[in-house]
Amino acid sequence: MRNHELIERLSHLVGDNGLVLDAEGQGPYVRDWLGKWQGSTPVVVRPRNATEVSAVMRLCHQTRTPVVPQGGNTGMSGGATPDGSGAQVILSLNRMKRIREVDPVNNTLCADAGVLLADVQAAARDVGRFFPLSLGAEGSCTIGGNLATNAGGTAVLRYGNTRDLALGLEVVLPDGRVWNGLRGLRKDNTGYDLKSLFIGSEGTLGIITGAVLKLYPAPTGRVAAWVGADTPAQVVALLSRLQSVCGERLTAFEMMSARCLDLVMAHVSGAASPLAGRHAYYALVELSDTEPAGLPALLETALGAALEAGVIQDCVVAMNDTQVQSLWRLREGISQAQVRAGKAIKHDIALPISRLAAFVEEADLALVSDFPGLPIINFGHIGDGNLHYNVLLPLDVAPAEYARLTAALNRRVHDLVAQRGGSISAEHGVGQLRRDELRRYKSPVEMDLMLMIKRALDPNQLMNPGKLL
Ligand code: FAD
Ligand code: MLT
Ligand code: ZN
C-alpha cells in the first residue's frame, strides 16, 4: 500500500490529531536523546486507547507495515528509533495517559502504558502508597517503556526490577488482537507466565497498552550517606556489612568513581563534593522504612564500625530530605554530565556481586594497557551488581574512530564480563546497540528459543524490526 493511502486510513482510526506527518514535528520521534541514532518514518501514529492501538495494528498487519513502539524515547539502546528506510511507522503511546484504577487495599494500580513514571509514583503517593521504580528519566519515561525494557534504576536492591513490580498486562498483538491480562493477583498458576514474555521484549512481540502494578507501604522516612573508599572491593565489603545490619531497610546502594564526581561537579550547576578529601570511589547509601525513628542511629553505627575497621575512609550522613536529595542529584547528574563532557561508549553490565571488584581491577588494567589515556567512567547500581563501565571520548571524535573504538572496547570489556559469568545488558535493553553483541554471548540454544518465540508471536516480523534479535 502506498504511504498516502496508509496515512489516510490511519487518520480514520486515530483522527488527524493522532498523526504527526511533518518533518519538524517528527524530529523528536525519529532520533534518540543521546543523538546516536537517527531514522525516518512516513508517520507517527498516536492512538488514545487500546481499542485504537488494536485497529492500528490490524491495519499494519493487513498491509505488512513494520511498527516501532515508542514511549518517552528516553531509552539508551536505540530501541525506539526507526531505521532509515522510511518504511517503519512509529506507534507512540504518548496520548495514553490514564490512571485507570488505584486499589490501596489490594496494593495495586492500573495505568495506561503511556503514563509517565513520575505520574505513576504520584498517583500511588496520593493514596498513601509507594511505587518504588525510580530512575533519572522518571519525569519523561513511560511505564510501558519501563516494562518493555524491564528497567532497573536505583531501588532494585530492595524492590526488584520493573518485572518484579508488574502483576498484569494488557497487550495488543501484532495482528491486532488484544490480550487482556490485567489481573491484580499475587498468585496465579494458570499456565505459562505470558506477561513475562512481553516484559523486557523491547517492543518486538507486541504493544503493551496497560499494566497492573504493585504498590507498597509508603516509607515515612529515609536517611542517606555519602561514603569515600579506596577501592571497589571496599565498597562491596561495605554493602555486605550494611545488608547484614540493616536488612530490608537498605533501599539503595550506588557506587561512582572519583572521575564521575569530577564530571558532575564540572557540568551540573551547584554540584559540590560532600566530603572534604578526595577518594578513588564513592558510595551513596540509603535506608528507608515505614518506622523511621531508628534509621539515623542505625546508619551512623554501621558506618562508624566500617570506618573503625578500615573498610571505608570517610563518610557523611544526610539527615533531612533536602540533604538526601542533594546527594541523589550528584548520582543522577552523571548521565547528563557524560553527555556534556564527551561521547560515551557505554557498557551496561551485570556481574555476581562477589566477582564485581575483581572485574573492575582486571578491566581497569586491561583498558589502561590496551587503550591508554581513555578515561573510564565507572559507576552504577552496585547493590544489584550492575555497573555502567563507560569510556568517554572527546565530543569531536571522528565517527570512524568512535566506531572502531566502540567495537574494540566492547569486545575487551564484554569478554571479561562473560568470563566472570556476567551479562552484557543489565537494565538498558539490547535495542540496536547490543543486538550484534548478543549473538556472541548467548548460547545457540538460548538464541534459538528466543527466535522461536519471536516467530510464533510475530510471524511477519513486523514488530520493531532490527532490534534485539
Ligand atoms: P522508549 O525509549 O520510548 O522505548 C524503549 C524500548 O521500549 C524501545 O524498544 C521501544 O520500542 C519499547 N517500548 C516503549 N513503549 C512500549 C510499549 N508500550 N509497548 C511495547 N514496547 C514499548 N534505565 C534504567 O533501566 N535504569 C536507569 O537508572 C536509567 N537511568 C536513566 C537516566 C536518564 C537521565 C535517562 C535519559 C535514561 C535512563 N534510563 C535508565 C533509560 C530509560 O529511561 C529506560 O530504558 C526507560 O525504561 C525507557 O522508557 P521510555 O518510555 O522512554 O521508552
Ligand atoms: C544511570 O544509572 O544513571 C543510567 O542508567 C546510566 C547511564 O546514563 O549510562
Ligand atoms: Zn543505571
TrEMBL record:
GO MF annotation list:
catalytic activity; FAD binding
Q: Could you tell me the keywords of this UniProt record?
A: FAD, Flavoprotein
Q: Which residues form the signal peptide?
A: none
Give a single Pfam family match: FAD-oxidase_C
Look up the record and name the cofactor or cofactors this protein needs. Answer: FAD
Task: Please provide the Gene Ontology terms (biological process) for this protein.
Answer: respiratory electron transport chain
Quote the PROSITE patterns the UniProt record gives: FAD_PCMH
Start and end of every FAD-binding PCMH-type domain?
37-218
Family under the similarity heading: Belongs to the FAD-binding oxidoreductase/transferase type 4 family.
> Protein name, please?
Hydroxyacid dehydrogenase
Q: What is the originating organism of this protein?
A: Achromobacter spanius
